[in-house]
Amino acid sequence: MMRFKVLLVVSVGVLAVALSGCDWLWPDAPDDAVAQSNLARDLDPDVSEDDAAALAAGNGAFAFALFGRVVAGEENVFFSPFSISSALAMTYAGAGGETEAQMADALRFDLAQDALHPAFNAIDLELNGRDEVGEPYEGDGFQLSIVYAVWGKRGFPFLDSYLDVLAVNYGAGLRLADFSGDPEGSRTTINDWVSDQTNDRVNDLLPEGSISAGTRLVLTNAIYFKAPWLYPFDEDDTKTEMFATLSGSSVSVPMMHESVDAAYAEVGDVQAVELPYNGGELAMLLLVPDAGTFESFEESLDYETYEEIVGQLEERRVHLGLPQFEFDFALSLVDALRSLGMEDAFDPDAADFSGIDGAHDLYISNVLHKAFVSVDEIGTEAAAATAVVVDVTAIPGEPVTLTIDRPFLFVIRDIPTDTILFIGRVVEP
Q1: Is residue 159 in a domain?
Q2: What is the pLDDT of residues 13-58, one digit of tens each?
Q3: Structural domain range at position 299
Q4: Helices H, strands E: what count in the chain?
Q5: What CATH number is given to the structural domain containing 30?
Q6: pLDDT tens digit string along 79-132?
Q7: Strand ranges (E), 136-192
């Protein structure tokens, strides 16, 4: 069964994937045993700039394609496409035949397997290498961590070649679990690990009954991020103001105000402003369509449109009003992934994950995703920035006033790697 959870902004992204299959009569191993490759993680992968750029572009295209499938009605949305892509990449490492081809198409994996996983490794190592910078955020400072863990059924014959891919590119051994004898105990163990990795932001990732005697493999990816704004808002300037929801009604919200030097663009009916986190390497890009155009813009939004907007950002003085917001989001991704063409992976009769165990007996039974985001005057807990504060010596053009009092979209991205970590919509703060 595949399980996916993501906790973002102010927190973490988590993806769990579980595969189901038939029984194997191998001797049981101790509870604390690990099926570990003899190979160490490659801490200096040889990845070309073209391969790194191809992975970033593919992940970006997947992010917006998936976003279009999960948006529904008058609902706030938030998820981590990078968490989803990287966790599914570990599953993809064992795919073959039409299953592999469909997954590559749905996930926008344009690189061959032997290039894809080193590219994920390189981006992961760079993101995890961001330094702690600036004043503490609620006492803990800037944090960005991405971790992987894989649990496999004790006695199941996982191929050495598959374990090598996990170890070399994701730093993950395969922890052996008693799925058959104690599925609920195994579920608790995995949930506890997730909670620990996410500072208790993601709890009960796997709901009761999600692990069964038929489970053979659970792959998890957890992203934890929180960071202060490079230019924090003054709490004294936060005032209660009205926000027009997607339904046409209005709600009162705490509206933060600040005049900042920020990257800004107007493209068609959309205003865009990018707010850097401390260090300047990660930022939140806010996309604010004109009143009455939100739905048409959202429907047409794809990676090419996003790139066009990013390419037109220029430094401006912006008098910004941004509502505080906090919400969580959860959904099953099976239907969305199927609509993107990933059909066979969920079909017990068609799935080919023979690269995991050498047989055609595994399939993905479910994919769940969960996300949480919180934004206030100090910063964001989830996707952040590090390093050096960059001062701009001159800001061209007249000052711009942007009060975000209507539905908007936002992206949290790592600028040096052009990696989209999180994406969301706010229709009612």
Answers
A1: yes
A2: 455 556 665 433 333 444 456 666 788 999 999 999 999 999 999 9
A3: 229-323+385-426
A4: 10, 17
A5: 3.30.497.10
A6: 888 888 888 898 899 999 999 999 999 999 999 999 999 999 999 999 888 765
A7: 143-153, 174-177
